[in-house]
Specification:
binds (2R,3S,4R,5S)-2-(hydroxymethyl)piperidine-3,4,5-triol; 7 helices; Glyco_hydro_43; mainly beta; membrane
Length: about 450
Amino acid sequence: MVKNKHNKNPTTLLRLVSTLVGCVFMIHLIMLYRRNYSVDNLEVSSQLLIHHPIVRELERVEEENIHMPPPRKRSPRAIKRKPKRPTTLVEEFLDENSQIRHLFFPDMKSSFGPTKDGGNNNTLHRFFPGKIWLDTEGNPIQAHGGGMLYDEKSKSYYWYGEYKDGVTYHSHKKGAARVDIIGVGCYSSKDLWTWKNEGVVLAAEETDETHDLHKLNVLERPKVIYNSDTGKYVMWMHVDDANYTKASVGVAISDTPTGPFDYLYSKSPHGFDSRDMTVFKDDDNTAYLVYSSEDNSVVHIGALTEDYLDVEPVMKRIMVGQHREAPAVFKHQNTYYMITSGCTGWAPNEALAHAAESIMGPWETLGNPCVGGNKIFRSTTFFAQGTYVVPLPGVPGGFIFMADRWNPADLRDSRYLWLPLIVGGPADRPLESSFGFPMWSRVSVYWHRQWRLPSGGKEIA
Ligand code: DGJ
């Protein structure tokens, strides 16, 4: 029998297709590998990076074993006063009378910082997420909802945040816990661990009730970027009234990183409400405002004007309908990443990582970046909420994830969680738009009870 040479043999066809798919997959993996580990002109082998003891130490997973405390014996009067006892660990965390409160908010005895180390090499320059962090004068750092500026001129880091060292109260029964505005605190450092208090660099308005920063209003999440054309340090922040209905951004400027900053004005960017926000300065000096809008249901992103004092008219709506807040943007190997939280007031919730090839989108959601601790730790961002991501000098793909463990019963006693964030390895699951191939690297935030920077306390600024 003469074989028709055009007769398709199904096995050959199958082989051909699988070889083709295999090839595309290999090319994709190679691209992924190259994107992760080629840093400018410096080619870092993935072997070197992944197995480097510094990265291994940052990625070491620590487990947590916090359980619900046994039910307490309560008098009938106490039951009447407060009938419901916490049934979940998050409720327990939020209960100021919880028996296990010290596990989430350890007291001053376990505080850390330059005045506490006393030359003990074991603890020297270690971060203790959740413990009280002291400045160079031995006072608890007040820089909540903060952000970081690296200043080329002074070769220093500046940490800006909400100075909340006042009394926590509720302005009305259903209102969120609040502290009157005191201002924006600023701290400087050369090693990212030893922080000197530079004072309140933008202060509240004490008397003029019509002023945006009148003490009875809200000032949250201040972020500072430097404009090399104008020589100005520009601060963007969330300004609001006590009921969070003003929902605007405020802008202030200064000639020096340590202020004082002059408050310029507030606005509704692109004509929309704006609550949690951040600013991100790209490598080409274009800066962007990223803010939760449309009643926190959508994130908006748009470029700032060249002087960084306003927004350009073009705005993109991203994460539509996802109800995300606390955006923190960073960039690695020409890919933009963002960590966001859910919207649950001061209560902790699950973080999500997102990625985009262009900062204006489309943005894809990668999943929960938290690794270690335990299930409840991971689903609550380790009982915290992100605020900023700082590149880790000397570690390609290495960053510090800055987060706040809010204490709504006493907001001034909210804690900082700084944890290593590593971009590397394939994402957990392929995205819908990627035909089954992993498009992005994984973003991982590793839980540590204590950890140190690879620089181990040396000046890195
Ligand atoms: C969550 C936000 O992320 C915080 O900045 C603050 O606005 C609280 N909500 C207030 O409840």
